[in-house]
Amino acid sequence: MKYVLLFCGDEQDAAAFEAMSPDELAARYAEVGAWFAEHQSKIGATNQLQGPASATSVRFGLEGQPVVTDGPYLEGKENIGGYAEIDVADLDEALRMAKTWPGRGAVEIRPVMTR
Amino acid sequence: MARSRGGGDTPGHDALTATRDALAAVFREEAGRLAASVTRILGDFDASEEVVQDALLAAWQQWPIEGLPDRPGAWLWTVARRRAIDVLRRDMRYQERLRALSFPVEQAADDDRLMLIFTCCHPALSPEAQVALTLRTVCGLSTAEIANAFLASEAAIIQRLTRARRKIAEARIPYRIPADDELAERLSGVLAVIYLLFNEGYLCSAGAAPQRRDLTDDAEWLAALLASLMPAEPEVLGLLALIRLHRARAATRFDAEGRLVLLRHQDRARWNKAEIAAAADLVVRAARLRRPGPYQIQAAIVACHAEAASWASTDWLQILLLYDALLRQQPSPVIRLHRAVAMGQVLGPQAALDETDDLAGDLDRYHIYHATRAEFLRQLGRGYEARQADERALGLTANPAERALLEQRLT
């Protein structure tokens, strides 16, 4: 069963991240690296994303015409900082992985649609 | 058992009611077992629901006419099996699963119902969905009965159940007993659902709607079922004891006019002494397992009250110590408020008032906070402030029994 883990955070999480010293930051990245290494066999495509300030959105109007705008589509305080596709037995196994995520913030688990 | 009279085509009203009552009791015993076995074999929560409903519907139509079978569980199982085979014919793994279906002619092992409970109470489902799903699948309530118990529309309940089942399938919520390392956490989720059900039934049992289904009955039944399936889990025993201790005293909670009667004024002669003693034994049995938890401690506190001959002769020091233990497990301003009442008895009203004043920030919107403060103020002879606090409490509750008590105080 495939799921995508969405690594999310809000403004507070971002501020806490910004406030970290270089040593703390290095330690956090090491933890995250260890997490990926531990679950390597279950993880497929995964990427960390640039911040929402770098986002550009294409919205489609009522007539289907594309309109390019600056900024993320999902407005508000939360944003997605990265994702990982995982292949595990069931939701409990996905939850088990998500609960040990060292990156803080929140992890949203979405099943991948199968046809 | 409940058979219709005469030719059986037109049973009289009483016989019909009796039959329906007997059916309801059998359904509660059998529906969960049936759902558990069928789900295990089909491996599909949604499909098994369809099969179980067909079997229950057949029973609902045939039993009042043909009479209750000697072994209702086996009867239901036979019908469900036939339907399940139809479902499996549509399935690729037909042969493999068909074998599983032909073997257990006997009913499901109790473990299966435990899996069912854990799936229904999975934390990935909303609390409302967990409650509705448990009542529907484990207790075998109809959607109309659930709607009636929660004063909701049947359409809303059906939608809630449909969404929950879809999520179980789409997100693949597993059908199994959680692994040892997560059992404690998941079990506390199950207990929370049962306690929520109990409180829902307990708080609205003031008599305003006597035709409403008594959810405290379902909650006790579920807690007892869980206790029989997990006899070595002390918190399960604690919750069962807690529910039984409350129910043993339920008759004295309201006066003839439907006003709330405070514990100190309740007629203790009308409490069910035998049930209280049995529940207190359960608390002791749980304590012997040496893994204390919030339900055991709450049950112990209620047992102290239930076994006391009067409000004055209650072992308040013991209750205060139990609240200290409860606070260590579950720090919460509401528990501190309850503890303040015991403090008042042990250390006097001034100490209790100081303690409650400390909680103002957290509990200012909670009517019982103000009503409790009013009691302490009255004991200290500060009548005017007590009145103000009672008025504040009255403004914060819509419960008719509570309002009646407060209004009586204010006149």
Strand and helix map with partners:
The complex is a heterodimer of chains A (115) and B (411).
Chain A: E1 2-9, H1 11-18, H2 22-38, E2 43-48, E3 56-60, E4 66-70, E5 79-87, H3 91-99, E6 106-111
Antiparallel strand pairs in A: 1-5, 1-6, 2-5, 3-4
Chain B: H1 13-42, H2 45-66, H3 72-89, H4 94-102, H5 110-120, H6 127-138, H7 143-149, H8 154-170, H9 180-203, H10 215-229, H11 234-247, H12 273-288, H13 294-307, H14 316-329, H15 333-347, H16 349-357, H17 360-363, H18 367-379, H19 383-394, H20 400-410
Helix pairs in contact in B: 1-2, 1-3, 1-5, 2-3, 3-4, 5-6, 6-8, 7-8, 9-10, 9-11, 10-11, 11-12, 11-13, 12-13, 13-14, 14-15, 15-16, 16-18, 18-19, 19-20
Would you summarize the structure shown here?
Chain A has 115 residues and is an alpha+beta fold.
Distance between the terminal alpha carbons of chain B, to the nearest Å? 54 Å
Q: Summarize the biggest pleated sheet of chain A.
A: 4 strands, antiparallel
- What is the percent of helical residues of chain A? 25-40%
Low-confidence stretches of chain B: 1-11
Elements of chain B, N to C (H/E): HHHHHHHHHHHHHHHHHHHH
Q: If you average the pLDDT of chain A, what whole number results?
A: 93
Q: Tell me, briefly, the overall form of chain B.
A: elongated
Largest sheet of chain B: none
Secondary-structure content class of chain A: alpha+beta
Strand content of chain B: under 5%
Structural class of the secondary structure composition of chain B?
A: mainly alpha
Helical residue percent of chain B? 55-70%
- Quickly count the helices of chain B: 20
